Structures are given as C-alpha cells and as structure tokens.
Amino acid sequence: MGIIKNMNKTKKKLILFDIDGTLITAGGAGTRSLNLAFHALFNIEDAFNGITMAGKTDIQIIKEGLGTHGFSMDGNVKKMTEIYLHFLQNEINNPMKKIKPGIKEALDLLRTMEMPIGLLTGNLEGGARIKLDPFRLNEYFIDGAFGSDHEDRDELLPIAIEKFSRKGFSFIPKECIVVGDTPRDVRCAKVHGARCIAVATGPYSKEDLLTTEADIVLDSLIETEKVVNLLGKL
Ligand SMILES: [Mg+2]
After folding, report:
1. CATH second-level architecture of 2-26+98-233?
2. What is the pLDDT of residue 232?
3. For residue 136, pLDDT beyond 90
4. CA 6 – ligand 1 centroid, Å
5. Is CB count within 10 Å lower at the N or C end of the chain?
6. Cβ atoms of residues 150 and 174 within 8 Å
C-alpha cells in the first residue's frame, strides 16, 4: 500500500464527484420521473423528449421543459421539483440502474486516505440522495453542492468550498478536483481554476472530452490505484 503512504504526505485535496454518468447510472429514472411529474401536473406525455440533460441542473432542465410547453415558471418550478422527487423514489427501483466500475473501490481508498470527498451535481439534494441510496453511497459524501443550491452549475464549486469550510476544511479552488462526465462538469471547475478529471462513462466519448480543458481524461475510474495516484498529482 505504498500509494497510501505517498498520498498521506501530500496536501489534501477536496474531491467533488458528479453523480449521473460518473458514480452511477440511474437507469433513466431521472428522465422518467420528470416526464411523470409533467404529466401529473399538465397532462402532457414525454414532455422532456428532445431536451438534453447531461451536466445540466435539475432546475435548469425543469425550466426548459416548462418553457418548451409554454408554461410560466411562477410556482410551477417548485411544484415540478416536489412531484419529481416523489416519482424518483419509485423510479430509482429499476433493474437498469448501476454503479459505475471502480467507484466503490476508489471511494473506499480515498476514505482510507482521509481525503475529503463531496458531491458536485446538478441534482436537487433530495434527488441526489435518492439516486445514491440503493448503492449505499450516501455515507461517503458528508456534503456537497447541488442543483438545489444554485441552478447554474458554474456557481456550485464555491458553494461546495463554503459548505466544507463550515465543517472545518479549508480549501481554495485550485485545491479542488471535480470528477465528472460532461463538458459542463469541466467548465464548472475551470471557471474557478479548479482541476478536473473527465471520465467517458456517460454520454460523451473520450475524444469529445479531450476537446475540453479537462486536466485528465479517462475511459473510466476502474483502475483505482492509478486514479488515486493521479488525484494526488493534480
Ligand atoms: Mg453527469
């Protein structure tokens, strides 16, 4: 376990994980729940068809759906989020949901090294917790920044830093590493000068991600020790 010894000598980093496409796939539970919520409120089927979601915040997606169908935001955003979370509780119980390869091992190793790890996700906090629960991943993440904290993903990194500072961890942006699967994950790190590892385990290929400003692009997080070693070098 030489790698752990080496890492303990380096200054700690705050590692912030995206959820969908990075830690897990929810098996379409998010999209189905949004469509079900829209149908329950407005009697329109498949309202979110054609709206790209990867890397966006839930509020952003809900507003796009409302706008596309000509509904006002007033009051409807809040109603949609509540009904969405209600449906998500059921929809997450589907056979297509999966944890991404290497995730559990990487999180266990980071925990052994006492690296602070958090979430940086477009999901509402309630939705994030619902999606992680079947995989028992919530216990790894003491805090994070969520789509319920701000609808613009680019605003989330400082929020994560602030929340961790309240827990006694002091970090500046360049000591943070965002791990995510879309160009939006890369951008929300880079606008603040943070580091970013992009993983091609979501809808974007390695070639797509190589065109972004990501510091490192990986096929997956499956080679746990290599990944953790890279995290220490960033
Ligand atoms: Mg993602």
Report:
1. 3-Layer(aba) Sandwich (3.40)
2. 73
3. yes
4. 30
5. N
6. no
